Amino acid sequence: MSSFLIVKDAVKYCGKSESTLKRLIREITADPDHEDRSLIDPGHDDLEAKKEAGEPYVWKIHTDLLDKRYGADESASTSPASKPKAETDSSNETIVALLREQLESRDKQLETKDRQIETLEKQLDRKDDQISSQNERMREQNILMKDLQQRLSIAAPGQQTDVVNGQSVKEGSDSTKKDPEKSSIWTREFRLFRRRQS
After folding, report:
1. Contact 65/36 with Cβ under 8 angstroms?
2. Under DSSP, is residue 161 helix (H, G, I), strand (E, B) or coil?
3. 66 near 75, Cβ under 8 Å?
4. Whether the bond into 80 is cis, omega within 30 of 0
5. Given a cut of 80, is residue 136 above it in pLDDT?
6. What's the pLDDT tens digit per position in 83-112?
7. 156 half-sphere exposure, CB direction, 13 A CA radius
8. CA 106, CA 40: separation in Å to the nearest integer?
9. Is 40 helix (H, G, I), strand (E, B) or coil?
């Protein structure tokens, strides 16, 4: 519906500032033959009459002029009703940016943790290799110790040797029994005595 609006209502209608609309009024009213002069109230003749009579007047702008100069799309986009939507969009963008930053920081933390886990796995593998090599060395040492013990083990009692009359003889052999008898005088006499009695 086309109608005349006072400046304050025109500001709400088109979303422009009051000073912009007053500048538009001065521009059009300065030329009485302006093509848009009929879209501003009071008209040229009424304005001159009120000025001469000293009567107050209020500027009014027709909505057709506002639509012509500022366009319906522009007025709709800059109207006060569209400001909350713009503020909501900006706040949504801020929230999205914050969430994106949090996701990026979380991705960096996960990458750091993955690197730490990989490092720990490598260290564990090296420790396993070290433990297996130590076990192999211990097994070799045990084998060497067993061989050494076998070489240094004491011979069996029947194979032990004693030194008798400056000669090395085995215990339990016939020579150890015969030599003391041969060297003993009393043994020889006892044998002779037994022979005589028989």
Report:
1. yes
2. strand
3. yes
4. no
5. yes
6. 556 667 777 888 888 898 888 888 888 888
7. 3
8. 62
9. strand
Mean pLDDT, the chain, integer: 76
Query: d(Cα 103, Cα 80) in Å, to the nearest integer?
Result: 35
Gap between the Cα atoms of 111 and 161, Å rounded: 78
Residues facing 6 on adjacent strands: 60
Rounded to whole angstroms, how far apart are CA atoms 195 and 153? 49
Residue 158's nearest CA partner among 176, 180, 137 is 176
pLDDT class for 3, splitting at 50, 70, 90?
confident
How far apart are alpha carbons 66 and 10 in whole angstroms? 8
Kindly tell me the burial class for residue 65, based on how many C-beta atoms sit within 10 Å of its own C-beta (0-12, 13-18, 19 or more): buried
> Higher model confidence: residue 136 or residue 183?
136
CA end-to-end span of the chain, whole Å? Answer: 173
- Helix axes of 7-14 and 18-29: crossing angle, nearest 10 degrees: 110
